[in-house]
Specification:
By secondary structure, this protein is an alpha/beta fold. It has seven helices and 13 strands. It has one domain: Rossmann fold (3-Layer(aba) Sandwich). The longest helix is centred in the middle third of the chain and has 16 residues. The chain is globular and about 45 Å long. The protein binds manganese (II) ion.
Length: 234
């Protein structure tokens, strides 16, 4: 049986939307994707987590700073409180059950927040040093900046690379990771671009969008393969 992998979506007024590249990548890697709808009932979220074999947290809009005990700064973008709430509860339950999680872009940020970390609401106005262009204007499949991969991390084990070139579509970023999590890759300006958990079987967050790269870049397909393999293990 293929592992059942929940894919979170964005909420656009009353429409649930997800870029098909996410479900395509999961299918390509051998998983069975299902789109997660909006659920507020905590018991229902726990039951959903019990049935899923893994969770793919997709990209999207900004995150409510209230979730990391801040008030909104001027450069915060649009937030979707219902999405934040569902994802925080679902992530916490998946972590509790030690089920695999792959967080992409916004997904890595909400994963970090749900686990107790904090983040930049806007890297450009909050960073003290000059930054690279993290909201690339090149096409989504184009890799625009480097990240240095830390040896011994999940990302390093999967890719075998110490340097990767990635795409970049974010103005928010992870700032502080919770205990048990560690930096797996950073860009040359010091922004955290990937992390994993030392305390879970497979918890990986990446700030870039591998779902837009895997067709042209086999290394990015390896991320989905490793994730789906981990989801098959239980
Ligand atoms: Mn970036």
């Amino acid at each position: 049986m293929k592992p059942l992998i929940g894919i979170t979506a964005s909420l656009d007024h009353t429409q649930i939307r997800v870029q098909r590249e996410n479900s395509d990548a999961v299918l390509q890697a051998g998983g069975l994707p299902v789109i997660v709808p909006y659920i507020e009932d905590e018991q229902a979220i726990r039951q959903l987590a019990s049935r899923l074999d893994g969770l793919l947290l997709t990209g999207g809009g900004d995150i409510d700073p209230f979730l990391f005990h801040e008030e909104p700064l001027p450069h915060l973008g649009s937030i979707t409180p219902e999405r934040d709430l569902l994802e925080v509860l679902l992530v916490r339950e998946m972590l509790f059950q030690d089920k695999p999680i792959l967080g992409i872009c916004r997904g890595c940020q909400i994963l970090n927040i749900a686990a107790g970390g904090d983040m930049y609401q806007d890297i450009y106005s909050q960073s003290e040093k000059p930054l690279l262009q993290h909201s690339q204007r090149a096409p989504r499949y184009h890799v625009s900046h480097f990240v240095d991969v830390q040896k011994g991390t999940l990302l390093h084990r999967i890719t075998g690379e110490e340097k990767l070139k990635v795409n970049s579509f974010h103005h928010q970023a992870v700032r502080k990771l919770p205990e048990g999590f560690r930096v797996a890759a950073a860009s040359t300006d010091g922004i955290i671009e990937a992390f994993d958990s030392r305390e879970h079987a497979f918890v990986l967050g990446v700030q870039w969008h591998p779902e837009d790269l895997y067709v042209k870049h086999p290394t990015m397909l390896q991320l989905f393969h490793a994730f789906v393999t981990a989801c098959s293990a239980k």
